[in-house]
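Lab notebook: predicted structure, single chain.

Context: the supervisor wants predicted structures on file for every construct in the current expression panel, including those that have not yet been purified. This is the next one on the list. No modifications to the sequence; it matches the entry in the shared construct table.
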Amino acid sequence: MKVLLISEGKHELGDFTRDETLSALSKLVSRTNSKTFEFTLKTVRDHEFRVIPGRGGKLFKRAMRCLRYAADNGFGALVFVIDQDDEPERREPLDRAQEYDGVAIGRAFGLAVRTFDAWMIADEQALSKILGRIIQRQPSPEAISDAKSHCKSLLGSAALGLTDLYKAIADEAIIERIEERCPIGFAPFAARVRRL
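Prediction complete. Output recorded below exactly as produced.
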């Protein structure tokens, strides 16, 4: 199935201009659903997804623009993930886009609480294997205010950058553990991915 995968940047998408297999998010999606996916990766800020400000809410308009783009360009599904950051109100427009029945295409909208980086620290066994040292179970990932800095501190002197670390975690982490540790953001997203 051809899937349009849209997210915010290199930590989710990797360096997809060089090699789309470097995408942590595409790996998580593939491991969550056993179907075979052919991904096209784009950033949410891509010029094709620009919207005109005004009534209706910018995020919902952008989600709908992405959904229509996917349908108009022959994709079988859309996967769209952004960070909550400090804006919990982002959930409502994404939930509305998920339920919208005016475009007949599979979709999985996700809101990472608080950021995608939180998903990457949910499985301490995967972190231990990748970093070559014992990493203790981390505090509740979705409660960490700056999960990116938390990940950087776990890296320590490792020769990996965050993008490579996230891809390695996406390869190793137990999906059910991420769901358990990230019940507000990852668990509902994973359920949507399984329904694609």
